[in-house]
Amino acid sequence: MSTTNPKLFNFFEDVYAVVRLIPKGRVTSYGAIAAYLGAKGSSRMVGWAMNGAHNVKPKVPAQRVVNRNGLLTGKHHFGPSDEMEKLLLKDGVKVENDKVVNFAKVFWDPMVELSIED
DNA sequence: CGATTGACGTACG
DNA sequence: TCGTACGCCAATC
User: What is the mean pLDDT of residues A24-41?
Assistant: First the structure.
C-alpha cells in the first residue's frame, strides 16, 4: 500500500465501476476501459485491476472484459478453464475457440455508451 | 532496492 | 499478414 497512493488507487475502483456498468450480453476491452479513464496507454493496469476483481464486493463481471481481439485471455484466472466462457454464454454472449462471437456486435464501448460528448 | 512479470495495445520491419 | 519491440504502471520475486 505504501507504493500505492489512495488517490491513484481510485483508478482500480473506476475500472470496477465501468465493468459493472457493462450491460448483459455485452463485452468490452481492457484498452476501451483504460482509454475511457484517460489511461489509454495503461491498458495493463486494467488487466491488473481485474486481477483483484474476484476479491472485491460486489464481484465484478470480469468475464465481460476481453482483449482487443475479443479473445478470452483471462479465462484461466476464473479457475476452471471454461468458467469464463460459461458465464459469457449465460449472459447471451456466444464464445467459440476462446473467442467472443460477433465481438464487434456485442462490443460495449464506454466512450460511446456513457456519452463522452454531447 | 533492482529486475522481472503481467487478464494489453500500438508501432515498426 | 505476421513476428518482434516497446511502453505503460503496479505487484511480486
Answer: 93
* CA gap A18, A62 in Å, rounded: 11
**Gap from A27 CA to C3 C1', in Å?**
28
Taking C1' of B7 and every protein CA, the nearest residue is A74
Please count the other Cβ atoms lying within 10 Å of the Cβ belonging to residue A56. 13
**For A58-91, what is each residue's pLDDT tens digit?**
999 999 999 999 999 999 999 888 999 999 999 9
The model's pLDDT over A107-117, given as tens digits with 9 standing for 90+, comes to 999 999 887 55
Domains of chain A, earliest start first: 6-106 (1.10.10.10)
